[in-house]
Specification:
By secondary structure, the protein is α/β, with parallel strands linked by helices. Helix content is 28%, strand content 24%. The strands form two sheets. The chain has an eight-stranded mixed sheet, sandwiched between helices. A four-stranded antiparallel sheet has the order 2-1-4-5. A hairpin with a 2-residue loop joins β11 and β12.
Length: 326
């Protein structure tokens, strides 16, 4: 079955310029060879520490950032270098829910205007039918039509995020990228928003890419999980493969940090030493080797490929290669 979205060897490198003539003296390797697929109706979780390139990957997929290399194919169309005029109709089908429900909404616009704005931009708002559609979307995200006449500052954080979800739904997209859509909310509100997103996925036949650093959130929403470290995918697979049998030492460390509700339950924490290296000068070889508790001689010489260890379960680590490090 043809994937709805295919990302092949995606790269986003930001130039570092210095001096009077703004010469390029280096690059920030924010995303450095990411490949992933998304099927219709599927939810893919993209997880990792802050600064690993998750959000940049999402923005590049939506062409809100121009990729340095690689390909982005949506519904059979290569949108990587597509002009703005040709890309415009496809933007209706690719939407985003931003992380911060406070700064992502225009404080000078009412909720009705915020939700109707993408419809007007694409020439789809037509009087009474447009108003009825906005009211319908508001009800679908758990708000009432009366809320549409209010301004963002009159709502709580959870209600504001519902407005952001409604705005993303307004154009009836097929793919929505959620950039940490619940991380700025209280835990009790997080559960409500997660359940809302799951219900909307079924009703509107949506495909999600959920960007998160909280693996507990991803576990409840995602069919597959891809783990990122310093601009690269280090492990991917079905969520139960990754959660029940993590292969990469980095994935194991992330999973060991998830709080356990039973204080008497034995657990083994993996504490990583040091900080995430700079994406300006990534370590040679495997980028994770300076912090890896299982690093061995040769890990610092060559970057391992992302290989299939079991059907559907891929890992980028020399521990799972038959060849030597040489």
């Amino acid at each position: 079955m043809q994937p709805l979205l295919t990302v092949d060897d995606l790269k986003v490198h930001f130039p570092i310029k210095k001096g009077l003539f703004s010469r390029t003296v280096g690059h920030v390797y924010a995303v450095d060879g990411v490949s992933l697929t998304l099927a219709g109706g599927e939810t893919l979780g993209l997880v990792g520490e802050s600064g690993c390139g998750k959000t940049t990957t999402g923005l590049a997929i939506l062409r809100l950032l121009d990729p340095t290399g690689g390909r982005i194919i949506y519904d059979g169309n290569d949108i990587t270098g597509m002009s703005r005029s040709r890309l415009r109709p496809l933007r209706r089908q690719l939407q985003i829910i931003f992380q911060d429900p406070y700064s992502s909404l225009n404080p000078r616009m009412t909720v009705n205007e915020i939700i109707a704005d993408p419809l007007r931009v694409h020439g789809l708002y037509n009087g009474s039918e447009g108003r009825q559609w906005v009211e319908y979307i508001l009800e679908k995200v758990g708000l009432s039509p009366e809320h549409g006449r209010r301004y963002p500052h009159e709502f709580s954080g959870g209600q504001r995020q519902r407005v952001g979800i409604a705005r993303a739904l307004a154009l009836r997209p097929r793919v929505i990228i959620g950039d940490e859509p619940v991380s700025a909310l209280d835990v009790s509100i997080q559960a409500q928003i997660i359940n809302l997103l799951i219900d909307l996925q079924t009703e509107f036949d949506l495909s999600y890419i959920i960007i998160a650093h909280d693996l507990a959130v991803v576990e409840h929403m995602c069919d597959r999980v891809a783990v990122m470290y310093l601009g690269k995918i280090v492990e991917s697979g079905l969520y139960h493969q990754v959660y029940n049998n993590p292969l990469h030492p980095y994935t194991r460390a992330l999973l060991s940090a998830i709080p356990v509700p039973d204080p008497g339950r034995p657990r083994q924490r993996t504490i990583l030493q040091g900080d995430v290296p700079s994406p300006i000068e990534p370590p040679p070889g495997c980028h994770f080797h300076p912090r890896c508790p299982r690093a061995r001689d040769g890990c610092n010489r060559r970057m391992p490929e992302l290989v299939e260890h079991r059907p559907g379960h891929r890992v980028r680590c020399w521990l799972y290669r038959d060849t030597n490090h040489g």
